Amino acid sequence: MPRLQKNDNFIDKTFTVLADIVLKILPTSKEEKEAFCYYRDGMSAQSEGEYAEALENYYEALTLEEDPYDRSYILYNIGLIYASNGEHVKALEYYHQALKLNTQMPQAFNNIAVIYHYQGLKAANKQKFEASKAMFDKAAIYWKKAITLAPNNYIEAQNWLKTTGRIKNID
């Protein structure tokens, strides 16, 4: 099962060795250890642009992982892959599933906002201004949630919210 490390990056190799050590000493079930291995292999494949392989690993991890917090990160990473492939509807589904399990994921709120903002821009370019405004309003809702959780992040989103009059101050 373990994925062969194609990347000779010292940090990646170090992470893999440390993760293997932690897995051996932690008092976790066989299923939890397997789920983590699939998750780790999914992250490795994803970082190398091997999205089909990453998805296979993430889906397998989901069948084994029971912890809602850990499942939220698996779902989030699946959303990342779909978003990077332009499958925004699927990406939104997975980001929302991740948020149902873990409401403290500013990165998921941000990514949802980015998709809605992109859809707003596309609608505006097609002169569909009502649809554009609706998408921008949705983006604002999700960016506000992301910023609330991580006030020092998402500076561009904060500036967009201010310049479009969707927020006065962010505190």
UniProtKB/TrEMBL annotation:
GO biological process, one term: photosynthesis
Protein location: Cellular thylakoid membrane; Membrane; Plastid
TPR repeats: 35-68, 35-68, 72-105, 72-105, 120-153
The organism's place on the tree of life at top rank: Eukaryota
Keywords: Membrane, Photosynthesis, Plastid, Repeat, Thylakoid, TPR repeat
Membrane disposition: Peripheral membrane protein
One Pfam family per UniProt: TPR_1
One Gene Ontology cellular component: plastid
Entries under SMART domains matching the protein: TPR
SUPFAM superfamilies for the chain: TPR-like (SSF48452)
Main location: membrane
Function noted in UniProt: Seems to be required for the assembly of the photosystem I complex.
Family to which this protein belongs: Belongs to the Ycf3 family.
Protein name as catalogued: Photosystem I assembly protein Ycf3
Lineage, broadest ranks: Eukaryota, Rhodophyta, Florideophyceae, Rhodymeniophycidae, Gelidiales
